Amino acid sequence: MRYIGRDIPRRVWKWWFNNHTVIDTLKRIVGAQYVLSSSDDVAVYKHDATPLFSGTPDAVVLPRTTAEIQEIVKYAAAAGIPVVARGSGSSLSAGTVPIHGGIVLSLTRMDQIKEINPAEMLAVVEPGVTTAELVTAALKLGLLYPPDPGSKIISTMGGNVATSAGGLRGLKYGVTRNYVLGLEVVLGTGEVIRTGGRLWKDVAGYDLTRLLTGSEGTLGIITEITVALVPNPAQSLNGIAYFASLKEASHAVNQIIAAGLLPATLEFLDQKCIIAVDEYANLNLDRTAGALLLFGDDGDLDVVNKHMELMERACLETGGFGIEIATEITRSEQLLEARRCSLPALSRLAPTLLLEDVGVPRPYLAEMVAKINLVAEKYQVICATFGHAGDGNLHPTIAFDEADPDAKKRALAAFDEIFSLAISFGGSISGEHGVGAAKLPWLKDQIGAEQVALLKRIKFAFDPHGILNPGKLGS
Known about the structure:
Blueprint lengths: L9 H9 L2 H10 L4 E2 L2 H4 L16 E3 L4 H14 L3 E4 L16 E4 L6 E5 L4 E4 L5 H9 L3 E2 L12 H7 L6 H4 L6 E8 L4 E5 L11 H5 L7 E9 L1 E2 L3 E9 L2 H13 L6 E6 H11 L9 E9 L1 H17 L3 E5 L3 H12 L1 H5 L5 E4 L2 E2 L5 H15 L2 E7 L4 E8 L4 H20 L15 H8 L1 H14 L13
Parallel strand pairs: 2-4, 3-4
Antiparallel strand pairs: 1-2, 5-6, 6-10, 7-11, 8-9, 8-10, 12-14, 12-15, 13-14, 13-18, 16-19, 17-19, 18-19
Helix pairs in contact: 9-11, 9-14, 14-15, 16-17
């Protein structure tokens, strides 16, 4: 059969769904119990963790094997039906929202850790394995999977690779793309390819593994992942320092980096975040401080102790006060929790929380936050900012009530300016959450029309029928 997906009108495949032709085919491929089509059953798949975006899938399919996915994609390509791959739905950019309907492929049943190999220091996993599950399994063998997204308890490895997820350890260890060695992927034609393999060094051909990592499900559906692991550090310590403002905290960050240190943790909270987190988690934080800097390192005990002393000194010399170095694991975890629980803490401020993700070169961090605060004042919105001080990745977060049309309009206008500000500093509209549907309107402003056109050509090469996650990158 000639693939004619792009030429078949939406109304045609919608008719096939309504007359159960598609549903019956999907049930034959994966089994009736793994196909959801009633309005109640598909309701949870209309959204991910991104507010203000929704799309109703015509069917949700839970495949178990690569062969099943291959057959589904071939059928969808022939019929012109959109296919959206989804893990746990923790995307913060509307990356897994089926904005054009069609089939949602929920990969949560593909949840096996196939191999952890200490000799080669790698793991092979299916896309539905959560980040936390891989971390726990690796730790039992004295190994560490370094990427540390804030949603690691629920976020899946497939989603992490699809967005090249970052996290708290990004400065020292890098992000997901730094650890992906190889992938098995079903392309938009139904072809199955394997990219990369089990080697750190492999320059045979174009680096398709890198290209697919961060492609947000628009080029292929990831069905197996091989990632590198590292030895688990012997010791990990964390500390906090308070500052009158983020400007002073940024001076401390610059001094720490200038000293030749690459901390495992270097995070910040502004005052609004400090107050919200302390009210939420009762961590006995100083609510009068303008900013909190969370710093830490891991490795051999002697080295870690030395680095912590140097970071403490840098904080003192740049106006830091109330400095605390955790001496027990429990307190160290509590300090990390001050950063990890920022999102649930801020969610108590209003019914709707827009958590965004921009990046600027590190020297502009404080200036960017100051301008974000001016934007918040201009549009009269509640905006708190936290993020990764070490790599310039900020998370400005606006709390509002989406039921109030004026409040919604002001929140969106504020983020329009915030994205433009990030670009003006030579930064990015997304450091780690991805572009998805939420930030697609600003992509051209950052990368230019020529690159957008190139993305479309790349998309066509991998997905000539345009069925994979349409309305996102390359669409």
